[in-house]
Amino acid sequence: MSQENGKEVFVEVRNLKKHFPILRGVFRRQVGAVKAVDGVSFNIYKGETLGLVGESGCGKSTTGRSILQLLKPTDGQVIFNGQELTKLGQNELRKARRHMQMIFQDPYASLNPRMTVGNIIGEPLEIHNIGDANSRKERVKELLKIVGLNPYFINRYPHEFSGGQRQRIGVARALATNPDFIVADEPISALDVSIQAQVVNLLDDLKEELGLTYLFIAHDLSMIRYISDRVAVMYLGKVVELSEKNEVFDHALHPYTQALLSAIPIPDPEKEAKRKRLILEGGVPSPANPPSGCRFHPRCSYATDICHEVDPEFRNMGSESKSHWVACHHAEQFIK
After folding, report:
1. pTM for this structure?
2. Which residues of 185-206 are buried (b: 16+ CB within 10 A; e: fewer)?
3. Which domains does the chain have, with CATH numbers?
4. Nearest-angstrom CA–CA distance, 48 and 26
5. Dihedral angle at the C-alpha atoms of 200, 17, 293, 288, nearest 10 degrees?
6. Least crowded by CB within 10 Å, which of 93, 133, 218, 288?
7. What are phi and psi of 156, to 5 degrees?
8. Phi first, then psi: what are they for 241, rounded to 5°?
């Protein structure tokens, strides 16, 4: 396993791409492609939470699913714990999946309404041939306790639970096989605000207790700041900034990140009234026909000719010990 900044690299994502074909006509010929993820590279360190943030439709969820091979990547590499996942056959991939799981966004759609809670949480144990029927039942009860639910709920159905309880069931299912790595795909966006903090605190506690590594996908910046160790910002299929959370929130070097941060309300009316808001012009371009050069240039007030023509390199503007990666031709002017 490789090292970076003195930390153990657990998941390596190298030039990951996921393009969905656009088919037309009677013969369903491909006439183009939606470039949902288009050349994403980053590392996730063992034991950390990497927050992945960006607008809806920027490719966050597709990135998470492509890393776990739930969607087959068009190109690129995903190296998990020393294994190249994109090259694995079905049997090897099934074995690897025991160590990596996903918490889905919608707790109403991700649980089978015809299965009891016991069957839902126990299904991964059955698939991976872990234990016998009795030990699986005990493990399911233990998992329900871990996520803060009554173990006697084992014979109930999903419709008998609230949204927050359903998401806890989803967390319990993800934990069933004792994974090392979990992709949490906007696990709180479908929940009431009062329940969101409970689920995030649960995930944070489980990380400490079980030594988990997370890729936490969200568009709520305040939640990302609370739970993440490092933050990656995505825009139109590419990562445009990546650094430690305080570095990103206090010293953002990409105009898009600066615009996202300026949208966070400040709980002080005087400061809120005085601060300068960055309002982005227009909407997000289509991933089927992204702009030339820097993808952000049509909405960027700092764009020059080079931004229209040349795709900026994703470069480290920090130090070796405290890296700060950014894809912007003019990042130097934002260094304070």
Report:
1. 0.91
2. bbbbebbeeebbebbbebbbeb
3. 3-99+179-334 (3.40.50.300)
4. 49
5. -90
6. 133
7. -85, 165
8. -155, 145
